[in-house]
């Protein structure tokens, strides 16, 4: 079995989380400058055994697509060309940023650390991945 990689896509930064090879535990991996995302993913998938990519699906409260979905669709087209052999699934990512921020508070991070948007993106990706794992069990 290979890892599952989750992506919390953003126009500036993208949070990335990954499972262990048994696909049990979701852990934050890193935050990447979005301009470097495709090269990062290509390199990662060439050196690690990745079975699936999970990309957040941003939705409004009324279940319609968020404005950022336009950018994600363009990214998904590039991703399909760059890494065609790994399937991509989408999962609802509503509230992950708020949940990530609350997770930071609950874990006792100082106010200065909670302003680290890269960390919020990485935690959001981890929450997306954990939500996906939960939906599969």
From TrEMBL:
Keywords: Cytoplasm, Hydrolase, Nuclease, Ribosome biogenesis. This is Putative pre-16S rRNA nuclease. Its EC number is 3.1.-.-. Pfam families: RuvX (PF03652). Belongs to the YqgF HJR family. Coiled coil: none annotated. Could be a nuclease involved in processing of the 5'-end of pre-16S rRNA. Residues 2-100 form the YqgF/RNase H-like domain. It comes from the Bacteria. It is found in: Cytoplasm. InterPro entries: RNaseH-like_sf, YqgF, YqgF/RNaseH-like_dom, YqgF/RNaseH-like_dom_sf.
């Amino acid at each position: 079995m290979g890892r599952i990689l989750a992506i919390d896509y953003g126009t500036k930064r993208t949070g990335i989380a990954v499972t262990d090879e048994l696909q049990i535990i979701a852990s934050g991996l890193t935050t990447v400058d979005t301009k470097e995302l495709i090269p990062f993913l290509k390199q990662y998938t060439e050196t690690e055994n990745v079975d699936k990519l999970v990309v957040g699906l941003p939705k409004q409260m009324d279940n319609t697509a968020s404005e950022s979905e336009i950018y994600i669709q363009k990214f998904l087209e590039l991703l399909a060309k760059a890494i065609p052999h790994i399937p991509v699934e989408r999962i609802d990512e509503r509230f992950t940023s708020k949940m990530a921020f609350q997770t930071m508070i609950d874990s006792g991070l100082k106010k200065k650390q909670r302003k680290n948007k890269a960390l919020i993106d990485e935690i959001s990706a981890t929450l997306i991945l954990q939500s996906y794992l939960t939906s599969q069990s």
